Amino acid sequence: MSVPDMDSLPSVNEQLGGRAGHPNARRATVNNCPYCMSQNLFPDAETDNAWQCRECMRVFSVKFHGQLL
Q: Where is this region: Disordered (predicted)?
């Protein structure tokens, strides 16, 4: 299990429910599972920055590297 990032930033999503209510505000937001295209996604509690797909039962993460100029 990975350790959550420790910094002075407050968690902006703590009081929101559902998909957005996860403790890591920097978790990349996804709309669909890259394997089965399901929208049944939830933050993975055991792996920081990862998502659970409840349709195909996979855990995956997405990383944003930056924008092309």
A: 1-25
Terminal-residue alpha carbon distance, the chain: 35
Q: Which of 4, 58, 10, 7 is nearest to 27 (CA)?
A: 4
Cβ(14)–Cβ(36) below 8 Å: no
Q: Which residue ranges make up each domain of the chain?
A: 28-62
Is the pLDDT at 15 greater than 50, yes or no? no
Question: What pLDDT is recorded for position 68?
Answer: 84
Are 51 and 43 in contact, with CB atoms under 8 Å apart?
A: yes
- CATH classification of 28-62 is 2.40.50, yes or no? no
